[in-house]
Amino acid sequence: MFKNAFATLVWNKQIEQIKNYQKDLIDYCYKIKNDSSSEYNSNTDGYQSKLLKLDQPLISKFINDIKDYIVNYANVYEIVSLFEIEIDDMWININQKNDYLLPHIHSQKDFSGVFFLKASKNSGTLILENPDVGYQYQKFFTKNKNNFIYNCYNCQQFFVEPLDLKLVLFPAHIKHFVTKNLTNDDRISIAFDVNIITKNENWKKQYV
Ligand SMILES: [Fe+2]
């Protein structure tokens, strides 16, 4: 009987209901860009906003629309106690032609997510790296790269093609980066981190 000893869970889906206010979100992103300077973290020349206020009405509506998907994602981890998910940080990336994001992880978070608010096939691929670095010591798979069909057991990288309204969730410790935007259009994404909050932790937070 085959068993997966370890696995990395990536989830992605186009969230059609956000199409109703996609333009409003895009306008909001450009307003943020116009009003405040860029941070410099994983970005090169692209714009990366400071952290968004999560109670801003449009952002709050967005979080409401993606929350159930995040809970479903977290459920795969079979957390025993009652839990809630908490959006920890959220920020905007606007990448023009030739902008890209450097490899990085999101430390001290549980899950990470990205929502492609405005993206297309060649506007920059999100690439996740296999956290099992042991593959570099294998013999056949490192020397015969054209002699096997890539699957989750033998690949070193996982490609997520950008697409308008696509939401992607993955473990926060997975190293990831974004390739160059090869189009003339801006690529806009909303990135965020998620923490798991158990009921006990919530209770502890309430007393001082
Ligand atoms: Fe990231």
Secondary structure topology:
Elements: E1 11-14, H1 22-35, E2 47-48, H2 57-75, E3 83-95, E4 101-104, E5 111-118, E6 126-129, H3 140-143, E7 157-160, E8 166-171, E9 176-178, E10 187-198, H4 199-206
Antiparallel strand pairs: 1-8, 2-3, 3-10, 4-9, 5-8, 5-10, 6-7, 6-9
Bound molecules: fe (ii) ion.
Fe (ii) ion is lined by residues 42, 104, 106, 112, 176, 191.
State the gist of this model.
The protein is an alpha+beta fold and 208 residues long. It has 4 helices and 10 strands, in the order E-H-E-H-E-E-E-E-H-E-E-E-E-H. The radius of gyration is 18 Å and the shape is globular.
Low-confidence stretches: none
Strand % is 25-35%
- Give the N-terminus to C-terminus distance in angstroms: 52 Å
Numbering strands along the chain, what is their spatial order in the largest sheet? 1-8-5-10-3-2
Number of helices: 4
* Bound ligands: fe (ii) ion
Alpha-carbon Rg, integer: 18 Å
Polypeptide structure, described:
By secondary structure, this protein is of the alpha+beta class. The chain has one domain (11-206): Sandwich (Jelly Rolls). It is 22% helix and 29% strand. It is built from four helices and ten strands. The protein has helices at residues 22-35, 57-75, 140-143, 199-206, and strands spanning 11-14, 47-48, 83-95, 101-104, 111-118, 126-129, 157-160, 166-171, 176-178, 187-198. The chain has a six-stranded antiparallel beta sheet. 23% of the residues are buried. The model has no long low-confidence stretch (mean pLDDT 92). It binds fe (ii) ion. Fe (ii) ion binds next to loops.
